[in-house]
Amino acid sequence: MSEAQRIESVAADWLARRDSGAWTDTDQQALDAWIAASIAHRVAWLRLSSAWERGDRLGALRTPGIPMPAPSPAPPPQPQAARPAPRLSRFSLQRIAAGVLVAAAATAWFGWQYMHEEQGQQYATAVGARQSVALADGSRLTLNTATQVRTAVNDSGRKVWLDAGEAYFDIAHDKKRPFVVIAGDRRITVLGTRFLVRRQGEQVNVTVEEGRVQIASAHPGAKSAEPTVLTRNQAAVTHADNVLVMSKAAKQVDDELSWREGKLVFDQTTLADAAAQFNRYNTRQLVIADPAIAQVRIGGSFDANNMSGFVALLKQGFGLAAHERGNEIRISN
Q: What is the 3-state secondary structure (H, E, C) of 40-91?
C-alpha cells in the first residue's frame, strides 16, 4: 500500500468512527490533530467527508427502508423468540456506496500521482557498498553505504528523494528544469552543481563542492525560516527549523568525499567519531568501552571496509586492547 492509499484509508476510518454514534470530545481532538499534521491528511479528509455528506443527501431523496434479505437460519437447539431482520444503522447503502466510489477514485488519483511523480526509479545500497547511478539528463549520483533513493527525471522536472543514507550529486546544468532533492523535511534546489547530502533521521547535512544550492522546507506553506543558500566549500546542518551554516577548507571537503574511493580520512578526529564512521560501513561494530580513550585523536587514511586493519593500528600504535564478541569489537585500555 502506498503512502497516499494509507492516508485515504485512515481518513475513511475516522469518518466511520465519527458517524458510529460513540464520538467523544477526545475523538474530535485527535481527529483535528491528525488533519493538522499534514496537507495530505487535510486533502484526504475534505475529499472523503464531502462525498460522505453527498451520500447522506442522496439517501434522503430515495425511499428509505431498503429490504435486507435474512440469512437462512440453522436449526436452533432450542426454540427462540423470533428476531427482527437486521437493519442498517446511520450508514445508509447510498452513503457507503458514495464513500467507496470516492475512495476508489481518490486512491486511483493518488496512486497515479505517486507512480508518475514519486516512485520513478529506486536504488539502494547495502552496508559497506557504493553505487554510481547515471540519470537520463546526464546527471550522476554516487550512493554511499546503506542508502536509499528514488529518482524521477523527465521532461517536466528532475527530482530525487533521499530516503536514507548519503549521496553525492553531480548535476547537469539545465536552467529550465531545476534539480530538486527531497531529504526528510528539506528541499534542496540547484541548476547545475556538485554537492553532498546525508540524511540521519530528521537531520540533513549538505556540503557544496561546486556551485550553489538552496535549502528550504519541503512542505509548501510551512512556517519556517527563509531559504538558505550555500556556495562552494560551505556546509549546513539542518534539524527541525534550525539551520547551521559553516565554511570549510577545500581539503576538508575533499576528505569528506573520500568515501567515493572507499576511503575514510581522519584529521584530528576523536576515536569515538572515527568508530562511528567505521560502523556505517561494516556489519561488525566498534564499541569504545572507555570514555577516556573515546577522546583520543587520530589521523590518517583508511579503507572503509578494513575494520580489522584499523583495530590492529589501535593495538599497535596506541597500546589499546580489543575484545571480540559476536558482531562487536570492544576497544579499551
A: HHHHHHHHHHHHHHHHHHHHHCCCCCCCCCCCCCCCCCCCCCCCCCCCCCCC
Confidence of residue 104 (pLDDT cuts 50, 70, 90): low
* Predicted pLDDT at 311: 94
Model confidence pLDDT, tens digit, residues 285-330: 999 988 989 999 999 999 999 999 999 999 988 999 999 999 999 9
Please tell me the distance from the alpha carbon of residue 244 to that of residue 236, in angstroms, as a whole number. Answer: 5
**Residue among 47, 62, 44, 48 nearest 7 (CA):** 44
Residue 205 sits at φ, ψ, to 5 deg, of -110, 135
Residue-wise DSSP of 141-168? EEE-TT-EEEEEEETTEEEEEEEEEEEE
- Classify residue 233 by its DSSP letter: T
pTM for this entry: 0.63
- pLDDT at position 71 is 45
The residue type of 172 is A
Phi/psi zone of residue 211: left (φ > 0), alpha (ψ -120 to 50 degrees), beta?
A: left
- Taking the C-alpha atoms of residue 285 and residue 307, their distance in angstroms, rounded to an integer, is 9
Q: Fill in the DSSP letter of residue 268.
A: E
